[in-house]
Amino acid sequence: MRLTSFPPFAATACLLVALLTGCEFDSETLQPPPAPDPETALSAPEPSTQAVDAERVQPAKMINASARSLEQRLSDASTEARVVQALAKQDDLRLFDFQATVRSGRLTLSGDVNTTDQHRLIDRVLARTRGLRAVTNRVTVAGRSAEAARGMIAEADSEEASKGAYYTVRSGDTLWKIARSHRASVERIKNLNEIRGSSLQPGQRIRVR
To answer: What are the pLDDT tens digits along the chain (209 aa)?
Structure first.
Protein backbone atom coordinates (compact mmCIF):
# COMPACT_ATOMS: atom_id res chain seq x y z
CA MET A 1 0.00 0.00 0.00
CA ARG A 2 1.08 3.72 -0.41
CA LEU A 3 1.48 5.73 2.81
CA THR A 4 0.83 9.48 3.18
CA SER A 5 3.14 12.01 4.89
CA PHE A 6 3.41 11.82 8.69
CA PRO A 7 5.41 13.52 11.37
CA PRO A 8 8.94 12.13 11.98
CA PHE A 9 8.02 9.81 14.88
CA ALA A 10 4.96 8.51 12.97
CA ALA A 11 7.07 7.96 9.87
CA THR A 12 9.47 5.78 11.84
CA ALA A 13 6.62 3.68 13.19
CA CYS A 14 5.14 3.27 9.71
CA LEU A 15 8.54 2.18 8.38
CA LEU A 16 8.75 -0.58 10.92
CA VAL A 17 5.23 -1.69 10.16
CA ALA A 18 5.96 -1.71 6.45
CA LEU A 19 9.08 -3.78 6.91
CA LEU A 20 7.21 -6.31 9.01
CA THR A 21 4.21 -6.53 6.68
CA GLY A 22 6.16 -6.30 3.40
CA CYS A 23 4.19 -3.28 2.13
CA GLU A 24 5.66 -0.94 -0.47
CA PHE A 25 6.11 2.72 0.43
CA ASP A 26 7.36 5.93 -1.17
CA SER A 27 10.39 7.36 0.69
CA GLU A 28 9.57 10.87 -0.45
CA THR A 29 6.26 10.82 1.37
CA LEU A 30 8.07 10.19 4.65
CA GLN A 31 10.32 13.32 4.33
CA PRO A 32 9.49 16.21 6.68
CA PRO A 33 8.19 19.39 5.08
CA PRO A 34 10.99 21.69 3.82
CA ALA A 35 12.18 24.55 6.04
CA PRO A 36 11.42 28.09 4.90
CA ASP A 37 14.09 29.83 2.82
CA PRO A 38 15.83 32.52 5.00
CA GLU A 39 16.24 34.90 2.04
CA THR A 40 12.59 34.58 1.12
CA ALA A 41 11.56 35.19 4.72
CA LEU A 42 13.70 38.37 4.97
CA SER A 43 12.30 39.82 1.76
CA ALA A 44 8.69 39.21 2.71
CA PRO A 45 6.59 42.40 2.49
CA GLU A 46 5.51 44.18 5.66
CA PRO A 47 1.94 43.79 6.81
CA SER A 48 -0.51 45.61 4.61
CA THR A 49 -1.77 47.66 7.55
CA GLN A 50 1.53 49.61 7.65
CA ALA A 51 1.28 50.47 3.96
CA VAL A 52 -2.28 51.67 4.48
CA ASP A 53 -1.22 53.83 7.42
CA ALA A 54 1.59 55.41 5.37
CA GLU A 55 -0.84 56.23 2.60
CA ARG A 56 -3.13 57.92 5.09
CA VAL A 57 -0.41 59.98 6.78
CA GLN A 58 1.46 61.25 3.69
CA PRO A 59 -1.41 63.25 2.12
CA ALA A 60 -2.03 64.97 5.46
CA LYS A 61 1.59 66.18 5.58
CA MET A 62 1.40 67.44 2.01
CA ILE A 63 -1.83 69.34 2.73
CA ASN A 64 -0.31 71.05 5.77
CA ALA A 65 2.79 72.09 3.77
CA SER A 66 0.61 73.51 1.00
CA ALA A 67 -1.48 75.44 3.50
CA ARG A 68 1.60 77.04 5.08
CA SER A 69 2.99 77.91 1.67
CA LEU A 70 -0.27 79.55 0.62
CA GLU A 71 -0.42 81.53 3.86
CA GLN A 72 3.12 82.81 3.32
CA ARG A 73 2.39 83.80 -0.27
CA LEU A 74 -0.65 85.78 0.82
CA SER A 75 1.38 87.54 3.51
CA ASP A 76 4.12 88.44 0.99
CA ALA A 77 1.57 89.79 -1.49
CA SER A 78 0.06 91.99 1.23
CA THR A 79 3.52 93.33 2.13
CA GLU A 80 4.26 94.12 -1.53
CA ALA A 81 1.05 96.17 -1.71
CA ARG A 82 1.97 98.11 1.45
CA VAL A 83 5.41 98.96 0.03
CA VAL A 84 4.01 100.30 -3.24
CA GLN A 85 1.34 102.31 -1.42
CA ALA A 86 3.87 103.80 1.00
CA LEU A 87 6.09 104.96 -1.87
CA ALA A 88 3.13 106.38 -3.81
CA LYS A 89 2.18 108.59 -0.85
CA GLN A 90 5.44 110.56 -1.25
CA ASP A 91 5.12 113.54 -3.58
CA ASP A 92 8.71 113.12 -4.81
CA LEU A 93 8.22 109.41 -5.59
CA ARG A 94 4.67 108.93 -6.85
CA LEU A 95 5.61 109.52 -10.50
CA PHE A 96 8.08 106.62 -10.58
CA ASP A 97 7.29 102.99 -11.35
CA PHE A 98 8.65 100.61 -8.72
CA GLN A 99 8.65 96.79 -8.74
CA ALA A 100 8.42 95.26 -5.27
CA THR A 101 9.05 91.53 -4.78
CA VAL A 102 8.69 89.99 -1.31
CA ARG A 103 9.71 86.43 -0.42
CA SER A 104 9.25 85.33 3.21
CA GLY A 105 9.30 88.96 4.32
CA ARG A 106 12.45 89.86 2.35
CA LEU A 107 11.94 92.75 -0.08
CA THR A 108 13.76 93.38 -3.35
CA LEU A 109 12.84 96.78 -4.81
CA SER A 110 13.66 97.82 -8.39
CA GLY A 111 13.06 101.02 -10.35
CA ASP A 112 14.75 104.29 -11.31
CA VAL A 113 14.65 107.81 -9.82
CA ASN A 114 16.21 111.13 -10.77
CA THR A 115 18.26 112.15 -7.73
CA THR A 116 20.17 110.65 -4.82
CA ASP A 117 17.86 112.53 -2.44
CA GLN A 118 14.93 110.56 -3.85
CA HIS A 119 16.91 107.35 -3.37
CA ARG A 120 17.54 108.22 0.28
CA LEU A 121 13.85 109.00 0.70
CA ILE A 122 13.05 105.45 -0.48
CA ASP A 123 15.30 104.04 2.25
CA ARG A 124 13.48 106.09 4.89
CA VAL A 125 10.06 104.97 3.65
CA LEU A 126 11.06 101.30 3.64
CA ALA A 127 12.47 101.58 7.16
CA ARG A 128 8.98 102.61 8.35
CA THR A 129 7.10 99.88 6.44
CA ARG A 130 5.94 97.03 8.66
CA GLY A 131 6.27 93.38 7.73
CA LEU A 132 9.76 93.62 6.20
CA ARG A 133 12.49 91.35 7.57
CA ALA A 134 15.17 92.50 5.11
CA VAL A 135 15.44 95.04 2.27
CA THR A 136 17.50 95.00 -0.93
CA ASN A 137 17.19 98.41 -2.62
CA ARG A 138 18.13 98.02 -6.29
CA VAL A 139 16.60 101.32 -7.40
CA THR A 140 18.97 103.19 -9.73
CA VAL A 141 19.59 106.93 -10.03
CA ALA A 142 19.36 108.19 -13.61
CA GLY A 143 20.25 104.73 -14.85
CA ARG A 144 23.25 104.34 -12.54
CA SER A 145 23.60 102.55 -9.25
CA ALA A 146 23.09 104.71 -6.18
CA GLU A 147 26.73 104.27 -5.18
CA ALA A 148 27.96 105.41 -8.61
CA ALA A 149 25.61 108.41 -8.58
CA ARG A 150 26.78 109.52 -5.14
CA GLY A 151 30.39 109.13 -6.24
CA MET A 152 29.82 111.37 -9.26
CA ILE A 153 28.18 114.04 -7.10
CA ALA A 154 31.02 113.94 -4.58
CA GLU A 155 33.56 114.23 -7.40
CA ALA A 156 31.71 117.20 -8.90
CA ASP A 157 31.54 118.95 -5.53
CA SER A 158 35.25 118.38 -4.99
CA GLU A 159 36.10 119.74 -8.43
CA GLU A 160 33.91 122.79 -7.88
CA ALA A 161 35.52 123.41 -4.53
CA SER A 162 39.00 123.20 -6.02
CA LYS A 163 38.14 125.67 -8.78
CA GLY A 164 36.07 127.92 -6.56
CA ALA A 165 32.48 129.06 -7.03
CA TYR A 166 31.61 132.65 -7.84
CA TYR A 167 28.50 134.78 -7.67
CA THR A 168 27.61 138.12 -9.22
CA VAL A 169 25.97 140.44 -6.71
CA ARG A 170 22.49 141.68 -7.60
CA SER A 171 20.51 144.61 -6.33
CA GLY A 172 19.16 143.88 -2.86
CA ASP A 173 21.69 141.14 -2.07
CA THR A 174 23.34 141.00 1.34
CA LEU A 175 26.21 138.91 2.62
CA TRP A 176 23.81 136.96 4.85
CA LYS A 177 21.45 136.21 1.94
CA ILE A 178 24.28 135.14 -0.36
CA ALA A 179 25.88 132.99 2.33
CA ARG A 180 22.60 131.25 3.08
CA SER A 181 21.81 130.47 -0.58
CA HIS A 182 25.29 128.99 -1.12
CA ARG A 183 25.46 127.11 2.20
CA ALA A 184 28.38 129.15 3.43
CA SER A 185 29.01 131.46 6.34
CA VAL A 186 29.30 135.22 6.15
CA GLU A 187 32.79 135.11 7.63
CA ARG A 188 33.85 132.54 5.03
CA ILE A 189 32.69 134.75 2.14
CA LYS A 190 34.34 137.82 3.67
CA ASN A 191 37.64 135.99 4.09
CA LEU A 192 37.57 134.59 0.53
CA ASN A 193 37.00 138.06 -0.92
CA GLU A 194 38.94 140.14 1.66
CA ILE A 195 35.85 142.17 2.44
CA ARG A 196 36.34 144.44 5.45
CA GLY A 197 32.84 145.77 5.88
CA SER A 198 29.46 144.41 4.90
CA SER A 199 28.52 146.51 1.92
CA LEU A 200 28.27 145.02 -1.58
CA GLN A 201 27.89 146.60 -4.98
CA PRO A 202 25.53 145.26 -7.73
CA GLY A 203 27.60 143.62 -10.44
CA GLN A 204 30.39 142.79 -8.01
CA ARG A 205 31.72 139.22 -8.55
CA ILE A 206 32.55 137.48 -5.32
CA ARG A 207 33.75 134.00 -4.46
CA VAL A 208 31.33 131.98 -2.35
CA ARG A 209 33.36 128.73 -2.04
So the answer is: 454 554 555 555 555 555 555 555 454 544 555 655 555 555 555 555 554 454 455 555 555 545 558 889 999 999 999 999 999 999 989 999 999 999 999 999 999 998 888 999 999 999 999 889 999 999 999 898 988 888 877 766 666 555 668 899 998 899 999 988 888 888 888 888 888 888 888 889 888 87
Bridge partners of residue 102, in order along the sequence: 107
For residue 14, the enclosing domain spans 1-30
E-assigned strand segments in the chain: 99-103, 106-110, 112-113, 134-137, 140-141, 166-168, 205-207
Count: domains in the chain:
3
182 and 148 housed in the same domain: no
Task: Provide the 3-class DSSP secondary structure of residue 1.
Answer: coil
> Does residue 157 sit in the same domain as residue 74?
yes
| 102 and 143 within one domain | yes
Does residue 170 fall inside a structural domain? yes
